[in-house]
Amino acid sequence: MIGAPIPQDILKYEAKLVGNFTARQTIIYGAGLSLAAIIDLKILPSYVPKEIKFYVAAAILIVFFAWGNVKPFGQPLEKVIIPILQDNFLKPAVRVKAYDRAEHEKEFNKPLKSSDLKDRAKKSKTIKCY
């Protein structure tokens, strides 16, 4: 029989598209290169020194190359950043309005009349203490 090496964990295998880069890395690197070229050739005026153009392009490329290689928690960076942005900025959790606990205790420590019991029960259901 002919023996062939089989990876033990198939989920860790990534198919290579160009050279040693996966499809995701190729797309991200291409986007970074094209953005750096557009900024260098079209957006920055011709009188800007070449050294500054180089540093701007290098900063853009470093960000995109880091984005292509970094995998926090074993996930691609875009799968980690999107929930963080949604939870903190786009759809923040509804905050419960804080209330003055001393006023709340004064109201509920008053001597009770029989007619106030129903009102107190209604109020205690509506006010939630955390």
What do you see in this structure?
With 130 residues, the chain is mainly α. It folds into two domains: 10-79; 95-130, no CATH class. The chain has five helices and two strands. It has helices spanning 23-43, 50-69, 77-90, 101-108, 116-126, and strands at 16-18, 21-22. Strands 1-2 form a two-stranded antiparallel sheet. Strand 1 (16-18) and strand 2 form a beta hairpin. Helix 1 packs antiparallel against helix 2 (50-69). It is elongated. The model has no long low-confidence stretch (mean pLDDT 81). Pfam families: PrgI. InterPro entries: Uncharacterised_PrgI (IPR024414). The chain crosses the membrane at residues 27-45, 52-70. This is PrgI family protein. Keywords: Membrane, Transmembrane, Transmembrane helix.
Which key features would you list for this structure?
130 residues; 2 domains; two-stranded antiparallel sheet; 5 helices; elongated
Taking the sheet with the most strands, its summary is: 2 strands, antiparallel
- Element order: H for helix, E for strand: EEHHHHH
Q: Cα distance, first to last residue?
A: 68 Å
β-strand percent reads under 5%
Mean pLDDT: 81
Question: How many distinct folded domains?
Answer: 2
Instruction: Please tally the helical runs, counting DSSP H or I stretches of 4 or more residues.
Output: 5
Give a quick rundown of the structure:
The protein has five helices and two strands. It has about 130 residues and is mostly helical. The chain folds into two domains: about 10-80; about 95-130, no CATH class.
